[in-house]
């Protein structure tokens, strides 16, 4: 009895075949997982940053330029201002203002209704400081209390409703020790303004991925439309669009982005538009080439014979068959958008402070490379390198996985 050799590609959709081939590329899978991790970090944003203040911009010059892994004791002193607690989504997107002033210190001791903290080295008389802060000022805001008086180890005060309250001095001391004295660790150190570097990098991830995503969407909308129209109609329509593509293509990308940025102004949203308006050219060229080839296929001729309108033939029949190279070039454009945004921010015409950006972080600290604080510039630089490499490797893997010329074997 004879058996026919089984074809493992029979009955399997092209999408599943492409996914199977992509999963065999271990490096691509690793970097794809890295991209997913970066997306999750960008979405969660301030919910996972050590510094959840808006733009992760909590500055403390006493902690400036500390190395990774640095930890210190801090005293949380209630601010004398009304600070509303934002709801979940708003806090995730924009952060929340800190209810406490953060005062780092070396040692402390409590004397009656005061806490005395020391800062600096005791051997350095110029930088050694002692601060005396009333315990009531640490634990309570002036908006919540008034006329705080200590009598016979009892603290008397009036709350916001003008109601007289009493607590023991021992209880107040325990509140300060347990709730207002903390140990804070900076996993990636602090920058020259005393801001947490890890928080800055996480929020910078949101900026880079947002610029990449919206820029690629803008380039796809313009590039797919112009490329499809040029490739399908040919003739004078094709000549005009190709001429326009060549004109834009002849201008250096970074120079064109800088020119558009100067016209639109500096800022977060302006970078999206500027980068997106320069990336559509490659998409249009690829889509045009695909349409010039596919428009002569039998299924397109059959669609015309059935009386389908050109719009339906372009977007429902031809475009789905030309989407594979568009996906690949979009991954490469995503990486280019991250590089361009970082370059613009480094030049000072991209995302503006206090919004954190990897390019801005390098600009602020590149002079530290020759000192012993090189990590301040290396860390955001490494983040840019990893993210760009991830999108390029994933894009190359997608190109191989979507290549219909490759023969499948067991």
Oligomer: single chain
Proportion of residues in β-strands: 5-15%
- H-E string: HHEHEEEEHEEEHEHHHHHHHHH
Largest sheet: 3 strands, antiparallel
> How many E strands?
9
Q: Can you list the strand order of the major beta sheet? A: 2-1-9
CATH top level label of the largest domain: Mainly Alpha
- What name does the CATH topology of the largest domain carry? MetI-like fold
Cα-based radius of gyration, to the nearest Å? 30 Å
What is the domain tally?
2
- Gap between N and C termini, in Å? 23 Å
Low-confidence stretches: 1-9
Overall CATH architecture of the largest domain = Orthogonal Bundle
Shape from CA axes? elongated
Share of residues in helices = 40-55%
Number of helices: 14
The overall pLDDT average reads 85
CATH superfamily of the largest domain: MetI-like
**What structural class is derived from the secondary structure elements?**
alpha+beta
Explain what this protein looks like in three dimensions:
This protein folds into 2 domains: 14-24 and 28-39 and 197-401, MetI-like (MetI-like fold, Orthogonal Bundle); 70-186, no CATH class. 54% of the residues lie in helices and 13% in strands. By secondary structure, it is of the alpha+beta class. It contains 14 helices and 9 strands. α8 (253-264) packs across α9 (268-294), α9 (268-294) runs antiparallel to α12 and α10 (298-305) packs antiparallel against α11. The two termini are 23 Å apart. β3 (107-111) and β4 form a beta hairpin. The strands form 3 sheets. Strands 2-1-9 form a 3-stranded antiparallel β-sheet. Strands 3-4-5 form a 3-stranded antiparallel β-sheet. A 3-stranded antiparallel β-sheet has the order 6-7-8.
């Amino acid at each position: 009895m004879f058996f026919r050799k089984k074809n493992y590609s029979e009955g399997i959709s092209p999408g599943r075949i492409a996914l199977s081939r992509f999963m065999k590329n271990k490096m691509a899978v690793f970097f794809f997982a890295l991209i997913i991790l970066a997306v999750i970090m960008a979405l969660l944003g301030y919910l996972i940053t050590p510094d959840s203040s808006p733009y992760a911009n909590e500055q403390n010059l006493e902690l400036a330029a500390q190395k990774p892994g640095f930890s210190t004791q801090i005293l949380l002193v209630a601010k004398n201002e009304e600070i509303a607690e934002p709801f979940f989504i708003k806090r995730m997107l924009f952060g929340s203002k800190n209810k406490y002033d953060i005062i780092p210190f070396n040692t402390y001791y409590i004397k009656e209704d005061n806490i005395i903290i020391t800062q600096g080295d005791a051997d350095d008389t110029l930088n050694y400081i002692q601060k005396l802060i009333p315990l009531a000022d640490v634990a309570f805001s002036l908006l919540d209390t008034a006329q705080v008086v200590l009598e016979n180890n009892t603290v008397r005060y009036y709350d916001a409703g003008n109601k007289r309250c009493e607590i023991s001095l021992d209880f107040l001391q325990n509140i300060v020790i347990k709730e207002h004295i903390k140990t804070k660790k900076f996993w990636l150190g602090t920058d020259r303004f005393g801001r947490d570097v890890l928080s800055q990098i996480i929020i910078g991830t949101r900026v880079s991925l947002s610029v990449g995503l919206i820029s690629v969407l803008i380039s796809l909308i313009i590039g797919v439309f112009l490329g499809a129209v040029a490739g399908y109609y040919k003739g004078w329509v094709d000549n005009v669009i190709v001429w326009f593509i060549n004109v834009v293509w002849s201008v250096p990308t970074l120079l064109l982005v800088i020119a558009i940025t100067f016209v639109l102004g500096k800022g977060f949203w302006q970078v999206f538009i500027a980068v997106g308006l320069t990336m559509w050219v490659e998409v249009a060229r690829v889509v045009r080439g695909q349409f010039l080839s596919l428009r002569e296929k039998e299924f397109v001729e059959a669609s015309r014979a059935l009386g389908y309108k050109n719009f339906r033939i372009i977007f429902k029949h031809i475009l789905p068959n030309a989407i594979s190279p568009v996906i690949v070039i979009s991954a490469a454009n995503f990486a280019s958008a991250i590089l361009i945004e970082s370059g613009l921010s480094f030049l000072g015409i991209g995302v503006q402070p206090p919004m954190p950006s990897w390019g801005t972080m390098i600009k602020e600290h590149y002079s530290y490379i020759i000192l012993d604080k090189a990590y301040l510039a290396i860390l955001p630089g490494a983040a840019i390198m990893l993210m760009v490499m991830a999108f390029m490797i994933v894009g190359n893997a997608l190109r191989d996985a979507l290549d219909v010329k490759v023969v499948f074997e067991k």
